[in-house]
Structure to design on (406 residues):
């Protein structure tokens, strides 16, 4: 685990910094000291739910005057030196070669899709004039991607990410759902020096460096199927599977007594739905007192769920990271969003050290989520993100990186 503090400046010019400072103000100060007086276009932060978010927002605004800050609470951090059980993880984008705009979408639990799409299109237009002022042809050398941070307790990710993806019209989107460890009480978003709940933050990035979005999981479908015969889609609760109490039917399929169900069993045996010929996980959040199951994704009546079984999480992750490395001609940095249930599954199978070694090798920075976004999809038990290459799109190398300091 990456306990303590550290900083790294990557070839692309991005700074990553992390700390396990006990308080929000101290954490912000440590990050400010690490990043120094660099010219920045945007800071993105992921922070422990036990930090006072208001204090953190004020401290970051004081330390980084004039620099836009966005972020969210997390269920664990990922830093280039390894995982972080608690603390603050920061990504500081340089002003050079990164053009960034962002916005906040409020009241996502009662989302107006047209209004949301209009706001996202307006955000995209604010970036367009920056293109026209540049001498370099953006079609040849520039790349855009979007980062989404969504309140993981608002039960609205499907609608939000669908509306955003529609309005972005081809710009790829990846992201994660804000959490609070596994307490399920309060997730918060940070934008413009203010704290938001029941909200989403969208960060639109344009860079001269080569980039590649990705998703990775380590499960494959079995022959065991469940039909959702009674559910509450708005509350993401399934009452019946195959016309039987949901928890009992699921527990029988994995060989457990319903009373023995836990986050570990949900992580080890997720359910999946088939969309367009591909399976996507629909992970269980908890078992309720009435025998129903609450999910991290919306599950409607009539949907067929498939029990999934695990593959080697280290091997599958290694293969995906190696693919990204080959595609980009060398990965400089990965901004990653990993389901908290993947961490629990890796721990139960003694795979967490192997995953941590891979994340250190490929400079993964990000947070453990209550759900992941990939293009127009909201996913569970997945590792998604954006990989940034070591060279400019034209082939020129970036700046010299500085080593990890702790």
């Amino acid at each position: 685990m990456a306990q303590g503090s550290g900083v790294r400046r990557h070839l692309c010019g991005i700074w990553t910094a992390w700390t396990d400072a006990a308080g929000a103000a101290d954490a912000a100060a440590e990050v400010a000291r690490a990043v120094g007086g660099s010219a920045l276009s945007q800071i993105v932060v992921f922070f422990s739910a036990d930090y006072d978010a208001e204090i953190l927002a004020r401290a970051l605004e004081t330390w980084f005057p004039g620099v836009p800050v966005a972020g969210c609470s997390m269920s664990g951090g990922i830093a280039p030196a390894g995982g972080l059980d608690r603390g603050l993880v920061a990504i500081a984008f340089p002003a050079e070669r990164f053009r960034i705009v962002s916005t906040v979408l409020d009241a996502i639990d009662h989302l107006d899709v047209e209004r949301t799409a209009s706001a996202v299109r307006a955000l995209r237009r604010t970036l367009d004039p920056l293109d026209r002022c540049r001498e370099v042809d953006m079609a040849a050398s520039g790349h855009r991607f979007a980062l989404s941070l969504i309140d993981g307790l608002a039960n609205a990710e499907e609608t939000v990410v669908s509306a955003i993806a529609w309005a972005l019209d081809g710009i790829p989107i990846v992201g994660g759902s804000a959490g609070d460890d596994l307490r399920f009480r309060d997730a918060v978003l940070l934008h413009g020096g203010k704290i938001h709940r029941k909200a989403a933050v969208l960060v639109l990035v344009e860079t001269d460096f080569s980039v590649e979005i990705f998703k990775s999981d380590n499960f494959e479908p079995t022959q065991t199927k469940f039909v959702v015969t009674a559910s509450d889609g708005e509350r993401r609760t399934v009452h019946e599977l195959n016309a039987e109490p949901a928890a009992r039917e699921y527990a029988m399929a994995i060989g457990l007594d319903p009373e023995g169900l836990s986050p570990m069993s949900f992580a080890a045996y997720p359910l999946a739905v088939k969309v367009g010929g591909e399976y996507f996980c629909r992970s269980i959040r908890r078992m309720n007192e009435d025998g129903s199951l609450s999910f991290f994704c919306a599950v409607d009546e009539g949907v067929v769920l498939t029990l999934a079984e695990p593959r080697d999480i280290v091997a599958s992750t290694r293969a995906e990271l190696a693919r990204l490395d080959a595609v980009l001609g060398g990965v400089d940095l990965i901004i990653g969003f990993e389901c908290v249930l993947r961490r629990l599954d890796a721990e139960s199978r003694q795979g967490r050290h192997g995953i941590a070694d891979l994340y250190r090798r490929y400079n993964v920075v990000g947070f453990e989520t209550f759900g992941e976004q990939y293009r127009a999809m909201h996913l569970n038990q997945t590792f998604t993100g954006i990989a940034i290459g070591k060279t400019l799109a034209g082939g020129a190398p970036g700046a010299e990186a500085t080593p990890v300091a702790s």
Observations:
- The first helix runs from residue 24 to 35.
- Residues 38 and 94 are 7 Å apart (CA to CA).
- The first strand starts at residue 5 and ends at 9.
